[in-house]
């Protein structure tokens, strides 16, 4: 078997086992066997650099630090949510919506509300082209964000490639750190004599906005995908897949 064929076979096998571990929570091989496959792929790619692909499992961890975070323009604006901290503020919002709808010719609209927990993290956009993760960016000011692809690649539940994806697919969500993970991280830093983080949101944001992906890989970041603008059912399915992978993490 040629090096190219073996590398392709290893990539496919590693993606399969990663999916079983992170998404299905049902691994069929142990860590040692997985690492052996990964080491074999690394060795082939080291000997044949032309075989390295952007979606290779070897590209998740240990990349070269970037010199700075480049600015990128979002395909569509990433809008932020408004706050309503009291019943009065919520009723005022409803009244504004009634007035707006009245101007559009909609009289006496009926409102329904859905409540869900808010994940307080760093808003991100994942851009896939021809099924391969091309760019990950922060929300920034809504129009322009920062390219943090190098750090988002280190999050195991973010797929580097997607089968049967549209030619261009954008998935949006939040990178966050769970309370247990945040507590454990601060305990490890305190034991090592390092400064501790103030809260989970700042910890997650600081992790994703740093320059060295090796440091990002050491921290327990999670991702919750919530939307895919303009992609319809395919984007919704992709968002659910990423979020399912996050929930399945040990």
Provide a brief overview of the structure.
The protein has 250 residues and is an alpha+beta fold. The chain is built from eight helices and six strands, in the order H-H-E-H-E-E-E-H-E-H-H-H-E-H.
Can you offer a commentary on this structure?
40% of the residues lie in helices and 14% in strands. The chain has 8 helices and 6 strands, in the order H-H-E-H-E-E-E-H-E-H-H-H-E-H. The protein is α+β, with helices and mostly antiparallel strands. It has 2 domains: 1-59, Orthogonal Bundle (Helix Hairpins), CATH 1.10.287.610; 68-82 and 122-250, D-amino Acid Aminotransferase, Chain A, domain 1 (2-Layer Sandwich), CATH 3.30.470. The two termini are 36 Å apart. The chain has a 4-stranded antiparallel β-sheet with strand order 3-2-5-6. A two-stranded antiparallel ribbon has the order 1-4. It has helices spanning 3-22, 31-47, 87-103, 149-152, 179-191, 200-208, 213-217, 232-247, and strands at residues 71-73, 122-129, 132-138, 144-146, 168-176, 222-227. The longest helix is centred in the N-terminal third of the chain and has 20 residues, at 3-22.
- The DSSP helix count reads 8
One letter per element, helices H and strands E, the order comes to HHEHEEEHEHHHEH
Number of domains: 2
Task: Report the major sheet.
Answer: 4 strands, antiparallel
| Coarse shape | globular
Helix and strand content put the structural class at: alpha+beta
- CATH C-level class of the largest domain: Alpha Beta
The CATH architecture term of the largest domain is 2-Layer Sandwich
Strand order of the largest sheet: 3-2-5-6
Instruction: Round the Cα radius of gyration to an integer and report it.
Output: 21 Å
What distance lies between the first and last C-alpha atoms, to the nearest angstrom? Answer: 36 Å
- Proportion of β residues? 5-15%
The percent range for helix content is 40-55%
Give the integer mean of the pLDDT values: 85
Number of strands: 6
At CATH level 3, the topology of the largest domain is: D-amino Acid Aminotransferase, Chain A, domain 1
- Give start-end ranges of low-pLDDT stretches: none
